[in-house]
Write a structure and sequence with these properties.
Layout (H helix, E strand, L loop, with lengths): L1 E9 L3 E6 L9 E7 L10 E3 L5 E2 L6 E2 L1 E4 L6 E8 L4 E2 L7 H13 L10 E9 L1 E7 L5 E5 L4 E4 L8 E5 L4 E14 L2
Antiparallel strand pairs: 1-10, 1-15, 2-9, 2-12, 3-4, 3-11, 5-6, 7-8, 8-10, 12-13, 14-15
Length: 186
Amino acid sequence: MLYLTGVATLSENIKRLFPKDTEESPAEYTFRLVCTSCREEHDAPVRINRFESHDMNGGRGNASFVMRCKFCGNDCSINLTRTAEDLYNLDEESNAEAIEQAKKDRKKKGLRSVPVEKAVLLELDCRGCEATKFEPADTTFVAELTSKKQMDFQFEDGENEWYDYDEDAEEEVSVVDMTFEVIKGK
């Protein structure tokens, strides 16, 4: 099982950060893939929507994403599952309970070594391929402020920071040094 983790420095007025991913407004997650049979990298990034369901070859069920390797013909599939975790501001006291729950969930998944500063955002059940890199430019994120206000945003291509202004509180809102990593778990 693979997991997508994210870590960033959040301004003190951000309570938590998470992908905007509902059935009404599904997120498009973009990944770089490698075939596990021939180890060739797919020539273009692929977009995966976790609410879509595609039939797998041979009637073996459904997956969020299905393809055949261009190089060796190997069948590849990925099922995405959103975890209960968000990227929490560790300085915000009201996040303590959610952070403790995240630690318990990680222990069950064999992700004990993932530091609490990182959020485990997605679970990727990959068959025949491996996601090697996440590209966030196509994914909309939500920054929930300590005032309960929510602000939607996207990272620009190649950027790992976002700045905005909260008119109500009259203060800057920022996410900097955002990095994502695909890691292996149980």
